[in-house]
């Protein structure tokens, strides 16, 4: 049985995820994140570095949304999953992906890379919010 992926939903999720990332790291937590990462708050990356970072972020957001769309499409094969409404499907899948994939990576960074717990909550909080929003976009548009 084929998996049906809505490319418009994937592209919308990429754009929205990019906006969330910008708001999260540039507006809401810019000072705290910069401090926790040990960066000089007065130093700004050059234009070339910013463009490279944004391009890589868009590519990463696309890969995340594309693979997540396949993950959600696969739920159709789980008995009873088709009875869940799109909101429940989105939230359930987002929480499971966040706990299973993002939280372990961020915990490892606290343990092995000496990141602070504050940084853990900033980064994993972003991934929780972004994963929920992407999951809801994909589950409603698929």
How would you sum up this structure, described in words?
By secondary structure, this protein is mainly alpha-helical. It has one domain (7-141). Helix content is 77%, strand content 0%. The chain has 5 helices and no strands. The chain has helices spanning 7-28, 30-37, 47-74, 86-112, 117-141. Helix 1 (7-28) runs antiparallel to helix 5, helix 3 (47-74) crosses helix 5 and helix 4 runs antiparallel to helix 5 (117-141). It is globular and about 50 Å long. The two termini are 16 Å apart.
Detail the topology: elements first, then pairings:
Blueprint: H1 7-28, H2 30-37, H3 47-74, H4 86-112, H5 117-141
In short:
The chain has 142 residues and is mainly α. It has five helices and no strands. The chain has one domain (7-141).
Biggest sheet record? none
Listing every helix as H and every strand as E from the N terminus to the C terminus, the arrangement reads: HHHHH
N-to-C terminal Cα separation, in Å?
16 Å
Shape: globular
What portion of residues is helical?
A: over 70%
Number of domains: 1
What are the main properties of this structure?
142 residues; mainly alpha; 0% strand
């Amino acid at each position: 049985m084929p998996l049906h992926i809505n490319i418009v939903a994937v592209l919308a999720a990429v754009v929205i995820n990019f906006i969330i990332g910008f708001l999260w790291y540039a507006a809401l937590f810019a000072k705290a994140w910069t401090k926790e990462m040990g960066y000089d708050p007065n130093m700004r990356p050059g234009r070339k570095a910013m463009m490279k970072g944004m391009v890589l972020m868009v590519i990463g957001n696309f890969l995340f949304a594309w693979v997540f769309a396949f993950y959600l499409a696969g739920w159709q094969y789980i008995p009873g999953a088709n009875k869940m409404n799109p909101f429940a499907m989105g939230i359930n899948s987002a929480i499971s992906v966040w706990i299973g994939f993002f939280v372990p990576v961020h915990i490892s960074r606290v343990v092995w890379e000496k990141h602070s717990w504050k940084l853990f909550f900033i980064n994993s909080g972003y991934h929780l919010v972004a994963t929920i929003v992407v999951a809801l976009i994909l589950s409603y548009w698929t």
